[in-house]
Amino acid sequence: MEGSVTDFKLVEKLVLENDYIIHLAAIVGVRLAMENGIEGLKVSCMGTENVLNCVAKYNKKLLAASSSAIYGKISKTPVSEDTDSIVGCSAKSSWLYSIAKLAEEHFCLAYHRELGCDVKVCRFFNAVGPNQSKSYGMVMPNFISNALSHRTLQIYGDGNQSRTFVYIEDLLDGIELVIEKGTTGEVYNIGGTEEIKIADLARKIIDITESGSDIEFIPFEKVFGPDYEETMQRMPDITKLKALGYNPQYTLEKSISSLIKHLKLRKDI
What is the pTM of this model? Predict the structure, then answer.
């Protein structure tokens, strides 16, 4: 079914048809959020309010997907669920996505506190999987796609920014655990624990694919314009999720190998 989470009647219909609601609707990727700021805010704020109003009205249970982007300019990792958010000023539109997801979290937790809604929140840290589109700017499928075709791998900035990655199967296991065993009104990080610099990720993918690709470094402002600020580190503390029994099966290398296998079968690389 195609539609928008900002369409209240559609949201109401879908909420009525289900017992448990998993709210994943969002503008995907920082660049799209920067280019579509109004729509991004509508989806995260108005859309989430639509979902919550229906959840409250019909006494449904909700799991809402948030993002590691809410942590903003963190200087130390790993970050736990109660680590403060430090985001940049509103003049920098790159923080719009972070603020929108943070507002979404506050909406959810306010509905829990004030109306007693059964709501849980999961913060995703750089999820990867076989059906991701490189058009959204996701770094790992982009690198692998280009490496398989021996095209240049483009790194934004100096490549010293670091990330962790969680494979979709581990992510889904985490979601299932939070639904089944998580505490209502709580937030849970879901992410990998192998931190890697983006430049090192590019080199690793070139090595694994035995690619002849070169690496090109492109300044952030050339890609995103002057209103962009980068988060240099993003790594979760998943102690809270592990207490529910979380046991991820995909290492970074296994995730890369799985994506390579799937991308080789696709025609749009």
Answer: 0.95
